[in-house]
Amino acid sequence: MNWGRLYFGSLIVVVGIVLLLDNADVLDAGDVMGDWWPAALIVAGLLMFVSNPGHWAGPLIVAAIGVAFLLSTLEIADVSDFLWPAIIVAVGLMVIFGRGSRSNPTEAGDEVNSFNMFSGSELASHSKEFRGGSVTAVFGGAEVDLTDAVPAPDAELDVFTAFGAVEVTVPTGWQVTLSGFPLFGGFENATAKDTVPADAPRLIINATALFGGVEVKH
Predict the structure, then answer these.
(1) What are phi and psi of 209, to 5 degrees?
(2) What is the pTM of this model?
(3) Strands across the sheet with 111-117, in order?
(4) Which of 90, 92, 163, 166 is the most buried (most CB within 10 A)?
């Protein structure tokens, strides 16, 4: 399951249900969405942490911002005077302590599982039975390096990007099938497709690009 696809699909369904209930005079859509929209940030932060537990700073900031806004919109606590200064301090700390700490790409193993929102990730797999997985980039980016991997017979990668970009690098000799749904976005399969034999290792990439892009290259 692609967490990004589930997240955005569920968000659209919830908004649709709220609008239907508003038309039925069950509730006021403006009040509900005005009070509860920060919950979307909290859920996004949790998904980011679950898929990238080694990178907790970004998910923590996103979730904390969501909690702070939710406390304000529900009138539980007024944190408006401290919220933006706190965000600025947090970003400054990330810049200071992040400098020079760039590490090698995270080892993905047999499957990729990455959810990025307002952030980015670098993943690499050296598996000889790479099965695929899912990658999400929302207002961010993700790089997946498969140059040292070997795909399993049914390897399939599910990619979702919204206002972001995903880049997948494969070795020469792979047969890559890229398809999906671009909406104000696009796909590019820059691999050498014409020189690949019919029995070459194969990777299927199903992608959704909303105001974003997906590129597959050597």
Answers:
(1) -125, 110
(2) 0.75
(3) 111-117, 130-138, 151-162, 202-210, 175-183
(4) 166
